[in-house]
Design brief:
Oligomer: single chain
CATH topology: Rossmann fold
Distance between the termini: 33 Å
Number of helices: 7
Number of strands: 6
Order of helices and strands: EHHEHEHHHEHEE
Number of domains: 1
Shape: globular
CATH superfamily: Phosphoglycerate mutase-like
Strand content: 5-15%
C-alpha cells in the first residue's frame, strides 16, 4: 500500500541510508572516503528500491550524496522509476578526518581521549574533520531547499550521520541530541513530513528496515 501524501503543504522526505559497505563490515570509519558496497549491499539496494517504489511510488525529486556507496544504492530505484538523481556533496557523511579508514579499536588506541569525548557526547571535530553541528547545518540546508522546490515526495540517498541529525533537527532536538536516535541500519528509510519554513515537521518513520540482517554501525 502506498503512503498517501497529506492534504496540507508538507513535502514528504524519505531518507535512505546506503547499503552495506566493506568498511561497515570491518568496523572502519568511512566519513567522506568510500570502500564500495559489498555483495550484500548491492542486494540490499535492489530490495530497498522495490520497497520505495511500492510504498512511495515515483518521487518527484531524487537526491543523493555524491559518494559512490550512496549513488550506487540509488541506482536500482532510479531504474525502476525511470528517473534521474541530483548529487549534492552536502549530503555526505560527516568528515572524520584522520580517522578515515581506521577501525574503532585503532582510533581508541591512537586517540583515547578524543574517542572518549565523542562517546561522552562532546561534539568535537572527529580526527580534525567535522563536528555534528556542522553536519546538521549543511544537511538541513539541502532538505530545506528540496522542500521549497518540490511537491509530493523527495527521496534522499545518504548516510547514517545525516539521517540522525536531520531527524533531530526536524523534531527541534538541539545537539548533541542526535545521539538519542539509534544508529541507522543499512538501506533503512526514515520519513519526515517537512512543514515548510514555519514548520512543524512530522516524524512519520525512523530507521524502518527493508532487509533482514542489515546492520547499523557505531562508526560513521
Amino acid at each position: 500500500m502506498k503512503i498517501k501524501h497529506m492534504t496540507d503543504p508538507r513535502v514528504r522526505l524519505v531518507l535512505v541510508r546506503h547499503g552495506e559497505s566493506r568498511w561497515n563490515v570491518e568496523d572502519r570509519y568511512q566519513g567522506q572516503e568510500d570502500s564500495g558496497l559489498t555483495e550484500a549491499g548491492v542486494a540490499q539496494a535492489e530490495v530497498v528500491a522495490e520497497v520505495l517504489t511500492g510504498r512511495f511510488g515515483s518521487a518527484g525529486l531524487v537526491l543523493s550524496s555524491d559518494l559512490p556507496r550512496a549513488r550506487d544504492t540509488a541506482e536500482p530505484y532510479l531504474r525502476r522509476i525511470g528517473g534521474t538523481v541530483r548529487e549534492d556533496a552536502r549530503l555526505r557523511e560527516i568528515n572524520v578526518g584522520t580517522w578515515g579508514g581506521r577501525t574503532r579499536a585503532e582510533v581508541a588506541a591512537a586517540h583515547p581521549d578524543d574517542l572518549a569525548a565523542v562517546d561522552g557526547g562532546v561534539d568535537i571535530a572527529r580526527g580534525g574533520g567535522e563536528t555534528y553541528r556542522q553536519l546538521r547545518k549543511r544537511v538541513w540546508a539541502v532538505l530545506d531547499e528540496a522542500a521549497a522546490e518540490a511537491t509530493g515526495t523527495v527521496v534522499v540517498f545518504t548516510h547514517g550521520g545525516p539521517i540522525r541529525v536531520a531527524t533531530a533537527e526536524a523534531l527541534g532536538v538541539p545537539g548533541p541530541g542526535e545521539r538519542a536516535f539509534a544508529p541507522v541500519l543499512n538501506c533503512s528509510y526514515t520519513v519526515i513530513d517537512h512543514g515548510g519554513p514555519d514548520g512543524p515537521h512530522l516524524l512519520v518513520a525512523y530507521n524502518a528496515p527493508t532487509t533482514a540482517g542489515s546492520r547499523s554501525t557505531r562508526v560513521e
